[in-house]
Amino acid sequence: MFCVEMKEKYEDVVMNSIPPKRLQNILEYMYSGDIDVTDENVFEVLEDSEYTQMKSLKLFCNLFILQIISAKNCLKLRACAQRYNLEDVLVKSNLSIAENFTTVVKQSDFMKLDVEDLSVIINLRKKKCEEAAFEGIMKWVNHNPLQREELFVKLFSKIDISSISLDYLAVISKENLVRNNLVCSNILVDAFANRTSVSETGKEIFVIGGLYSKIECVGYDVNGKQSKRFPNLNFKRVGATSVKVGKKVYVVGGHDGDKNFSKSCEMLDLYDQTKWNVSAEMLEPRVYCGSGVINGQIFVTGGFHDIYLSSCEKLETQSNKWTKIKNMLHPRGYHGTVVFNDVLYCIGGWNGHKALASCECYEIKSGQWDEIPPLNKARCGLACVVLNGEIYAIGGKSGDHNLSTVERFKPNSNHWEILASLQISRNRLCACIVENKIFVIGGFTDDLGNTKPVEIYNPALDCWTTSFETEENVYGATVVTL
Questions:
Q1: DSSP letter for each residue of 384-417
Q2: Which residues are CB-contacts of 33 (< 8 A; sequence separation ≥ 6)?
Q3: Residue 453: helix, strand or coil by DSSP?
Q4: With contact defined as beta carbons under 8 Å apart, do 402 and 425 qualify?
Q5: Chain centre distance of CA 471
Q6: Are 150 and 161 in contact (CB under 8 A)?
Q7: d(CA 51, CA 45)
Q8: CA angle 29, 35, 41 (to 5 degrees)
């Protein structure tokens, strides 16, 4: 202060801003290089160093604060860092807030953050704590609703809705800030739609038909590992496809084991599990076709009877009537079919000559098929599922070899990535989602023939483990989650 070109250098100044004891502390530091800085007085010393323009003392305080940042004080220290331009402290405080978000949102200083600061902190989070993030945003907005309500949508859009449970999404949907904002409402509607079509809430795998159990249907409780018999099918089915619409299970197509191809369709009402009811027949017979549900309509893709098919059709479940939709770009059977965001995806398969890496998708609004990036490995007889908004292509066959490899497609990034492989290579397997994990059932392998072990994939760990065994070998079956 007295050495640089400030007025104190040239004028007599009474330093009323610093109490005598604090000034004495600074004078001792000037002559000895030592100063007593504690948790209790660090803010005072920092303020005095700023007032007196003592850069070395300010740096000393900066280093001290870096050592004491914790979940309890990170908000207060962040405000201090902003006031005194302590860049290192600001960075570390932000990280501490992000890492301890569930604790920090409960502190009164959280309300003092501005919208840009809060946005930065939400983006920095590494641990998924979306429910706490939503509650923190609501608390922050309601602290000053007149000025902050218009900022709610900016913050709400930064939450990863896909990782929030359905029960808590229902809680969010009741908040007026969400209901009264069109953007927020649309985000929530999409989340409900995706979760309903992507993640099953049941805990039971329902295995239907297959080469060694053509009319049999067995349910497996994945927790208790108990099995349950359901009514037999009306028709023998190998290589059929199945979907669940509400509380009704539909199974279509397949063959009877003697290569008699079927265009029949039947339905089991889960409220009345006494028998399968015969529904309207498809327009043409199909075996090893694919299926998915969009807005209560069942879409069936490809397959083969005398030739491999590019044709597709849909069933209006209310009217029980099948109609043709536009053909795929490529004929394919033994492929995977899934639905995400009301878009139908067809993955890999066989065209009568070779396994396919090509993939395509069908947008119901435009009625058009479009190419999407191909698989890293051409495969047929694979299983496909959607989990947390990502498409999985599992196992199958390429050339003369059954595959254990697994790929995942992220629609937002538009590419396939390689994941951990199955423990057992499998062809003509089936798969479903239970409790946010992938269960793979049956198939045919190079060494073991038909397989009883059911493998389970944990996306958080990227690993496959054996869950339980089916009662019989499963091959060419189809599966849904109950």
A1: EEEETTEEEEE--EETTEEB--EEEEETTTTEEE
A2: none
A3: strand
A4: yes
A5: 32
A6: no
A7: 10
A8: 125
Return the residue matching tokens 């397959």.
Answer: 303
Distance, in Å, from the CA atom of 480 to the CA atom of 131, rounded to the nearest integer, reads 30
What does the DSSP 8-state code read for residue 222?
T
Give the count of beta carbons closer than 10 Å to the beta carbon of residue 47: 18
Q: What is the DSSP letter of 298?
A: E
- CA–CA separation, 137 and 160 (whole Å): 13
Q: What b-and-e string marks burial along 92-104, b requiring 16 or more CB atoms within 10 Å of the CB?
A: bbbbbbbbbbebb
Find the helix or strand (DSSP H, E) in which 171 lies: helix 166-173
Q: State the pTM of this model.
A: 0.61
Which pLDDT band, with edges at 50, 70 and 90, does 8 fall under? low
Picking from 290, 408, 304, 289, the residue whose alpha carbon sits closest to that of residue 338 is 290
φ and ψ at residue 290, rounded to 5 degrees? -125, 165
DSSP per-residue letters across 256-291: -SSS-B---EEEEETTSTT-EEEEPPPSS--BS-EE
- Residue 42: Cβ within 10 Å count: 17
- Please state the φ and ψ torsions of residue 133, each to the nearest 5 degrees: -65, -45
Torsion sign across C-alpha atoms 117, 123, 125, 129:
positive
Q: Treating both helix axes as pointing N-terminal to C-terminal, what angle do 42-52 and 55-68 enclose, rounded to 10 degrees?
A: 160
Say whether 431 sits in a helix, a strand or coil: strand
Of residues 257, 288, 250, the one with CA closest to residue 382: 288
Residue 166 CA to residue 362 CA, distance in Å, equals 27
Enclosing H/E stretch for 139? helix 130-143
CA distance 439 to 418: 18
At 199 the pLDDT is 41
What domains, with CATH codes, occur in the chain? 199-481 (2.120.10.80)
| 3-state DSSP helix/strand/coil % of the chain, to nearest 5 | 30, 30, 40
Convert the pLDDT of each residue in 133-172 to its tens digit.
Answer: 888 899 999 999 999 999 999 999 888 887 777 767 878 8
DSSP string over 40-77? TTHHHHHHHHHHHT-HHHHHHHHHHHHHH--TTTHHHH
Tokens 């396939």, residue? Answer: 416
Contacts 24+ apart (CB under 8 A), 9-13: none
pLDDT digits (tens, 9 = 90+) for 211-263: 989 999 999 988 767 899 999 999 999 999 999 998 899 999 999 988 899 99
CB atoms within 10 A of CB 88: 12
